[in-house]
Design goal:
19% of the residues lie in helices and 42% in strands. By secondary structure, it is an alpha+beta fold.
């Protein structure tokens, strides 16, 4: 896909092995600190509620990244696996891949550590991804329950091991 203009909005959920709130998060362009235990393993997920890449509609598509990095490896490179929504067309899956790897530029190259620093992409797989809102908690914020298909969960195991 050529460098198409793109924009997406929707919901985001992350879970990692750090203590909450993840100390390695980059906030307002400021680098975060070390992970809680020296190695971060996690999954980051998005539901695109509205979005396009060029003329490709991305509404209702889902994306998950399973990842790891170790604080003491030189440059703390991210090792990650990108999982894109199998329900999407080839054009939708390619657009999601291009956005979430940073190939289409834009804010991804400023926000996603795997796009702006050294990283190793283990692969891109089209899988079934489920993540549903489950009502609201006591302060009115929506609770999100992640649920990945068995195929996606197996793919995440490969990212945690750092093998392809």
């Amino acid at each position: 896909m050529d460098a198409a203009p793109w924009a997406i909005s929707g919901s985001y959920l992350e879970a990692c092995n750090c203590e909450a709130i993840c100390p390695c998060r980059r906030i307002d362009g400021k680098a975060g600190g070390r992970s809680t235990y020296g190695e971060c393993t996690g999954a980051l997920s998005w539901i695109v509620e509205e979005g396009r890449a060029g003329d490709v509609d991305l509404a209702d598509m889902r994306v998950v990244i399973t990842c790891r990095y170790h604080d003491d490896e030189p440059g703390s490179p991210w090792i990650y696996l990108l999982l894109v929504d199998a329900r999407g067309s080839e054009a939708q899956r390619q657009a999601l891949s291009d956005i979430f790897t940073g190939r289409l530029g834009g804010t991804a190259t400023k926000q996603f550590p795997w796009a702006f620093k050294e990283s190793e992409l283990l692969g891109v797989e089209a899988v079934g991804i489920e993540r549903q809102q489950q009502g609201a908690d006591h302060d009115g914020a929506a609770r999100t329950e992640p649920a990945l298909s068995r195929c996606a969960a197996g793919a995440g195991d490969r990212a945690r091991r750092g093998a392809g």
